[in-house]
Each structure stands twice: as structure tokens, then as C-alpha cells.
Amino acid sequence: MEPADAGLSARCPTDTPEFSATPATGLLARAKKDSIQARIIKAEPAMPERFENDWTIRLTDLAGAPLNDIEIADACVYMPVHGHGSAPSGVTGAGEPGTFDLKGLNLFMRGPWEVQLAVSSASVAGPAAEATNCDRNKSRPGHDLLVFQVCVPDD
Length: 155
Prior knowledge:
Blueprint: E1 28-30, E2 36-44, E3 51-61, E4 71-79, E5 84-86, E6 90-93, E7 99-107, E8 111-120, E9 144-152
Antiparallel strand pairs: 1-2, 2-3, 3-7, 4-5, 4-8, 6-7, 8-9
């Protein structure tokens, strides 16, 4: 019999994708509507750790071409097993088309996390209707939602 709190376990699931942050092999997230993808191309620290993490990501179409008109409408660091999250301290363009810096991703507990991005682009058809879990009022929706699955392991 499972303990009553088994559903709240904050252990890293065995199916958590391997974390990598390079332009060629960085962790990839595909949009919910399967029209945009994002890759982590740089991370500080190199592996997810408790508290402050900074990432540089590149948003592209599915063929890998940068989207010049892409915007991040909202970003959220969300822990599904506990139902809480927070916004990064900053989201800014990183100079190249479709490249953004996500500063202050606060992974404040050990366990599985989602880094959610509501993104918008004129290249993506349809109304903005996808919101992150941090946007409870759905006031900052994007055309699509991308989710990176990461985990802060136990020591």
C-alpha cells in the first residue's frame, strides 16, 4: 500500500529528460501545438540547482530556423507535484533573433519542475490562448505553450 503522501513526492521521476545546455544538443521543448521549439543553449549553473538558475534559450520553427518575430508573453517556473511556482526575475532578448535570457529561475525545492513559456509569433496562426500556470487570470497568454521538464536532484 502506498503512503498517503505518495502523490506529493518531490523525487526526480525516472523519465526526466537528461539536462544539457548547448546550441547543438541542449534540452529541447516542443510547443503544445507542435509549431515552435525551444532549446536551452546555455545554463548557469551547468546543471539545475536549488535557487537561482540562468538560461539562454533559442526559439525556432520545427526545422530549426530562428523566428524573428517571436515574443515570450509569460514565463513560469512551476512545480506540478506541489502546485506552486514563480516567474523568473527577468526575460530579455539576447541579441540574436529568437534568443532570450531567462534570469533568476528559482528552483527553490528539490524535485521535478516545469519551465513554462507562453510564446507569440505572427508566424504562428491562431489566437493567443495558451497561458502558463503562473498566469492564473490568463492575462498574458501566448499563441502556444512550451514546457521544459527539469529536476533538481537530492544531494
